[in-house]
Amino acid sequence: MVRFAATRLVAALPVLLLVSLVSFSVMHLIPGDPASVIAGPAATNQEIDAIRQQLGLDRPFLEQMLAWYGHVLQGDFGRSILLNTTVWQAIVDRVPVTFSLSVLALIMTIVVGVPAGVIAALRANTAVDAAVTGMALLGVSVPSFWLALMLIVLFSVILEWLPTGGYVPFAESPVDWFRSLLMPSLSLALLQIGLLARITRATMLEVLRQDYVRTARAKGLPRVMVIGKHALKNVMVPVITVIGISFGLLLSGSIVIETVYSLPGIGRLLATSIFGRDYPVIQGTLLLTATMLVLLNLVVDLLYAAIDPRVRYGR
User: Fold this and answer.
1) What tens digit of pLDDT does each residue of 26-54 get?
2) Structural domains of the chain, with CATH
């Protein structure tokens, strides 16, 4: 298992290198000058040139890139142009918000999506199956920002059950922390529940047609044992793939949700940095997000190997 994990990790290093190279290159091709943003609209050309020189933006592109890689290898992501703090500190301060939001949304997705898909498969071609399939299609089709706004109108404006936005740290109040993340997590989860339910349903239907399931039924085993022990375990391999993809989508979708709900997370930090041309923060955030996704894929591969040992040996 250790060798399997090491092989997957080494294979991920070129991906991180490519992501960092693309993010650094693209941000320098986007029109706009961070020195002008920092100096303000009333600044003179001399003041803008001085700021540009101070930030190193007057140096050739290749020189800037090599200097950035050199600092990154030492664990230094630079300083934020707009926040007056290090990029690492700006990211670390916001990781708990995005991580809490994504994990809570993932839990909602798994708890609802997997059972819904299993039930739909067991009740195939019935009203229950049609209802689950219809809700799944609706969840996949609804735009996240529109759904977030509708939830605010319903639960905050009409019912007055939940706050419209903001974030309360867990250390201050666990209850208020949960209330501040409930609607944003629900907004993210509803879009992924439909995808997970449909994949689970399709996989379960295929597994139920296999010979070993028919044999288990012919032996007179209880239906709960047939579904839980024989069918569900084989369903989990493709389902884990979807769960991994869903978690990646939850992380990327947090940009819109955090902006709508005014959550101080990584997604909102990235959006603010893009508008402000804060190159160091953008590059550091993209590199961190790519690293998290690579590690997530590694975890999914390890779960594959744990469920199906044939994966370890490439069979």
Assistant:
1) 666 666 666 776 677 777 788 778 877 87
2) 2-73 (no CATH), 94-275 (1.10.3720.10)
